[in-house]
What we know:
This protein is globular. Helix content is 6%, strand content 34%. The protein has 2 helices and 7 strands. It is mostly beta strands and 139 residues long.
Amino acid sequence: MAQSINMINDFTPINEIWKIKVRIILFWEVPNYNNPNVVDSIELVLVDEKGSRIQASIRKIIMQRFSNMVKEGWCHIIANFGLISNNGKYRATNHSYKLNFFFKAVVRECEDVQLPLHGLNFTSFAQILKNEIDESVLV
């Protein structure tokens, strides 16, 4: 029986088997602190059809396996990944979890015009000036 597609906002630490359909709306490489010419990880922001966003990480040890599969703007079905707490000092999304690619992750390109093209949530300049934002989440 085929596994159904989950929504990003349904993630909980109890379930360990997830399958999502998402668009990559942001993609960046994180350089090594001591050698900026070496990439330590690939970071992504993913959005599902409901507009929910989550940050994802592909660590250096498995980057070669996935680097040609993940491009900004592409849509994918992703399964067999892990979730870790999203409690860093600076976070790309306000989601409680961060998606962590494992070697066994399955990434399959798909076509889906239903997925948002950008998934941006704008913050007004007035909110920034009034300090009405969570400073740990990038705006």
